[in-house]
Amino acid sequence: MKVKYAVIPCAGKGTRFLPITKGVAKEMCPIVDRPTLDYIVEECLEAGITDIVFIVSKDKEDIRKYYSIDKEYEKELREAGKDNFADIIHKIGAKARYHFVIQHEQLGLGHAVLQAKSVVKNDNFVVCCGDDICTYEGDSPVKQLVNAFEEVGEKTIVGGQKVPHENIVKYGAMGIKSQINERLFSLSHIVEKPKLEEAPSDLASLGKWVFNAKIFDALEETPKGAGGEIQLTDAIALLMKEEDVYYYDFIGKRYDCGDKLGYLEAIIDVALSRDEFRKGLIAHIKSLKLD
Ligand code: UTP
Questions:
Q1: pLDDT tens digits along 31-52
Q2: Extended strands (E) in 36-96
Q3: DSSP tag of 94
Q4: Is the Cβ–Cβ distance between 158 and 205 less than 8 Å?
Q5: Cis peptide before 164 (omega within 30 of 0)
């Protein structure tokens, strides 16, 4: 396996999701019965990742608690004859090797990724934002990106999708050098949150990447950019001077769960995909007087 680490930055302040984020990490907000973050962890595990590196802030202890093995609680559940629940909570702690790295100052996504260097060292790794989930059939989007990473000789893959033209201003937009196959492109440049008339394409970066360790050198050289933050996109632009960078247009439905509407859409779609809720939920939606 060429990529065994996934780095999941979860140290952001979650301002867009206030007031809940005053007391609860947005990554821990539930989608039905699991935290948002766990859908991302599962997607990584399906891609063959064995080690998850969470980048957290000092006050996000609930993430560590969720992923730890709690032998006392398991014992209590088993003694009460609730083995099925004991098995469920055991699996959470046992399904991967977890690493926690604290980002002491919230200096941006690029800075958050750089904190993973102490664990990942010279290895390749996936990065997934802790608030972006996907639903999919077949290979997980992370798996698709890892396959593309191997296909191009272990060079950076920026994962994303085409967005409606007016929305590209919210994302990193891709400048295309050449199209390699239906979904894979080599890049000439990336523009973070471009003005509409300056966007080089409608291909947007959507919270998933695969890197080799060279990105750490680029991040160390990246000065503070937009919003006074160290931007991952700026580091990728720097890396591009040294080696080719690629874009993969992944298959799957992506939800921005750092945004309240995106989060609500994810809850509805995930609930509808589960047999135990589907019928009741459809009946409920039909009973609403919607116009
Ligand atoms: P966002 O851009 O959504 O930032 O980060 P945010 O601070 O979490 O949310 P808002 O914009 O204030 O509402 C994208 C991902 O990067 C992480 C976040 O936790 C999220 O998963 N992040 C962001 C960090 O880990 N550290 C940072 O300094 C910034």
A1: 999 999 999 999 999 999 999 9
A2: 51-56
A3: H
A4: yes
A5: no
Atom 14 (ligand 1): residue with closest C-alpha?
Answer: 129
Alpha carbon distance 188, 2 (integer Å): 26
Residues facing 192 on adjacent strands = 172
CA of 83 to the centre of ligand 1 (A): 37
Architecture of the structural domain at 5-287: Alpha-Beta Complex (3.90)
Instruction: Give 1's pLDDT tier (boundaries 50, 70, 90).
Output: low
Which pTM does this prediction carry?
0.95
CA 173 vs. chain centroid, Å, equals 18
Instruction: Say if ligand 1 is within 6 A of residue 207 CB.
Output: no
CB atoms within 10 A of CB 168: 24
118: helix, strand or coil: helix
Location of structure tokens 């591009």 = 240
Distance 95 CA to ligand 1 centre (A): 25
Reply yes or no on whether the pLDDT at 291 is more than 90. no
Give the atom of ligand 1 at the shortest distance from the alpha carbon of 21. 13
Cβ-Cβ contacts under 8 Å for 175 (sequence gap 6 or more): 187, 188, 189, 190, 191, 200, 201
Given the DSSP bridges, would you call strands 125-128 and 5-9 parallel, antiparallel or unpaired? parallel
In the chain, count H helices and then E strands.
11, 13
7 Cα: distance to centroid of ligand 1 (angstroms): 14
- Return the ligand 1 atom nearest residue 8 CA: 21
Measured CA to CA in angstroms, residue 88 lies from 38, 69, 70, 81, 257 at distances of 13, 11, 12, 14, 24
pLDDT in tens, 56-70: 998 888 999 999 999
Instruction: Supply φ then ψ for residue 54, to 5 degrees.
Output: -90, 130
Share of the chain above pLDDT 70, in %: 100
> Closest Cα to residue 149, out of 24, 32, 6, 252?
6
Which residue, among 100, 98, 96, 93, has the nearest Cα to 70 in the 3D structure?
Answer: 93
- Scan for tokens 């990246």, then name that residue: 222
